[in-house]
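Sorry to interrupt, but I need a hand with the structure work. Could you add the entry underneath, on a fresh line?
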Amino acid sequence: MNRFLSLVCLLALPVAAACGTTEAAPAQPSAPRAQPATTELHALCVEVLTHNRTCTDTYIPALVDLRAKYDVPAGIAAEVKADRDGMIAAAKQEWATDSADEAIAATCTKMASALDQPPPHDADAARACLTQTDCAAYTACIMPFFEKRFAK
């Protein structure tokens, strides 16, 4: 697993279970809600990672900064402080491999098979981000999903 990007844990959309989170499952509402199917979550994962790839130059620096803010993985904050441009370059190099179609498909298969179904609003909110065509707007929309996982 790559040090900077760790895609399985980056896609914090509806995939907290794949990252080993210990968050309690949300309370079930009195009326049952439909949950996205595993195949639907896989498709959403692929869409998000593919969109991330189209916004590499905006997405990766934001991701590196977010990881530094929460020091995930431990020590990255000091490394980013010492050489942010070098860390972004290294992350982009890893991302070149991790964002290949085959890698995205494998990552999303692992995540979808490891999931407890997420609340539908998480998936809906992620889909809303995907409508953003401007990379700055998209990155600003999708980063809060990642931040939820880093800020534990």
Residues 104 and 125 are 20 Å apart (CA to CA). The chain has seven helices and no strands.
